Amino acid sequence: RSNHNTTLTLLAQRVTGYLKEDGGLQKALAGADVVVIPAGVPRKPGMTRDDLFNINAGIVRDLITGVAETCPKAFILVISNPVNSTVPIAAEVMKKAGVFDPKRLFGVTTLDVVRAETFVQDITGEKDPSKTVIPVIGGHSGETIVPLFSQAKPAVNIPADKLAPLVKRVQFGGDEVVQAKGGAGSATLSMAYAGYRFTESIIKAAKGEKGIVEPTFVYLPGITGGEAIAKETGVDFFSVPIELGASGAEKAQNVLPLISSEEKQLLEACKTGLKGSIDKGIEFGTKSPETR
Known about the structure:
Blueprint (H helix, E strand, L loop, with lengths): L2 H9 L12 H6 L4 E4 L15 H18 L4 E4 L4 H14 L8 E3 L2 H10 L1 H4 L11 E3 L6 E3 L12 H12 L1 H8 L8 H18 L6 E7 L6 H8 L3 E9 L2 E5 L8 H26 L6
Parallel strand pairs: 1-2, 2-3
Antiparallel strand pairs: 4-5, 6-7, 7-8
């Protein structure tokens, strides 16, 4: 379709909002094919994503409970931080309800990819980030974020003295934004773009478009190709490039054999940080609300 026709189609849609009272959540979720969850509190200076856990964990649990009851076959896209914990929470809630489909649950880590593709421009001189594809694996906070510049397409030449600062900026770009805003919020516009980008990929794949691959934080054992990655990393939840299709996450691409020696060191730190966050989410998700 032309851009003109697309615009007309979008204008024809109706947007409605609901409050919690009178079954608002169930009304909002009824018939949903895709559920995007950005709900929660943003980070403030000095806060880590783990500091958000006690508030955002309960919010995600309650929303996912609504999804399990109202639209269990929807694609679930979790943006709420800490993603390394909230996605395991979502999985446990869906498991308890007997409706968990690993192919339909995603932690949105696209912002890490966007940062990697954007920040590397300062070195490569490329003006269009979309022309450089850089996979980012691991988790979605600090040292759990592992950008794989060695696997960039097209290949990028990063001087040795610039690689470590570049990696750190991708890993801690969120802190940079929080500090720049002086406590007034965290990344918003860039996260909105990243959320839109991943959601659009999910919708395109669901409609039958082929060849769509996006890094995303998933439950590896439930996805084709994921078992080997889970065994190699020692964690069940991990972000890798995922081939998307009509059923959701159709195949996990194992990029680990191709990573550089520097990236292997990053991966070790990533695994250490991830395990605790994942376990924390699983523990929270398995307990009933009244026991917490």
